[in-house]
Amino acid sequence: MGSFEVTILGASGGPDGGATQCFMVRPMGCRGLRSICVDGGAGFGEISQILARSKDSCKSELLESFYANDFEPAGQFFDDKASISVGFPQCMIGSLEHALEKQNTFTKAMEIYMGVKEYYITHAHLDHIGAMVLNSPLACDANNEDGKLIYALPFTLQAIEKHIFNDVIWPDLLHCGSNRLKLSRLTDGIPHVCTVFPQWDIIPFKVHHGFSASIVDKRVYSTVYLFSDRTTKQALLVCGDLEPDSASDGEPLLEKAWEYIAKRVTRGNLRGIIIECSSSASTPKHELYGHMSPAYLVGQLSRLREMYGDPNALAGLNVLVTHVKTIISEKDPRLVILQELREAALQERLDVRFSMAVQGYTFSF
Ligand SMILES: [Zn+2]
Ligand SMILES: [Zn+2]
């Protein structure tokens, strides 16, 4: 039995707009509507779509692709052994239907949105905060009793405060007196006790995410979050955008996260890794712009295994791949990347299970 349920509200890495990265994370089997989200690239609109779509079980067996076929059978995107369900977790929908049997989709979606009590933001790029910002007037609504907290490392909080909620790009709802939308600072490598689900420690690690597009040698950073359940001792790693330390000759940052996990999470208790792989193997390194490729991702998983000092340390680990960039090509790049990852892992004798994070599905870890 796992510990975590993750509903994918958005998994695209852009550059087309829409459902970009946002993962709703809850303890397995948790009743009620309370949740937290890692990143805010999707929100109220996507919650509504997911609710409406999951009513029609036929449609949910096909996924939007818009490449070789407009719709592809869902099965190709997931590992055979991954634990997956369509829509929001049943225990969540159960609480919703009990309270709101005759309500329409928007009313139900608002209940779920109001249940998001905390955001954990990896970095301030728009594809990771867009919907959170656009939805923020709803969060500040007087009917929303306890509002929302936005957690992040200082570099991300500063960017959100200075460049987004500044009364120019978006109204400054952080300082408008409603007190319903607040920033809260985390510390690199230090466990934070989650207030929504107090059995969880959430540990942020700063990681590299390439360089500034305009200023030479100015580094860009992002965050990965380790969820650690103190009761079950199980853990889940949820990443935003990132690259290996070596990709930009950077100081060891991701290396420190792997070290922490190998030291503190007992083999087998690491239930899953949600991590980006934005581009396929055919992309030249200088066009990755601070992101992962299949070779980088498999390399980093091998590094984690090495740190455990056990060739079977990651056997059967579920790796959920996100943030694939939309490109103009024949085949769906998500299917291309999945195949490349599986082949690269086979070569490294890395026995992990890759699935693609697809909007509207719940994965159990
Ligand atoms: Zn991104
Ligand atoms: Zn980014």
TrEMBL record:
GO MF, one annotated term: 3',5'-cyclic-AMP phosphodiesterase activity
GO biological process: cAMP catabolic process; negative regulation of glucose mediated signaling pathway
CDD domains according to UniProt: class_II_PDE_MBL-fold
Transmembrane segments: none
Listed Gene3D superfamilies: Ribonuclease Z/Hydroxyacylglutathione hydrolase-like
Alphabetical list of InterPro entries matching this protein: Pdiesterase2, RibonucZ/Hydroxyglut_hydro
Source organism, top-level taxon: Eukaryota
Database matches in PANTHER family: 3',5'-CYCLIC-NUCLEOTIDE PHOSPHODIESTERASE 1
Identification of the protein by name: 3',5'-cyclic-nucleotide phosphodiesterase
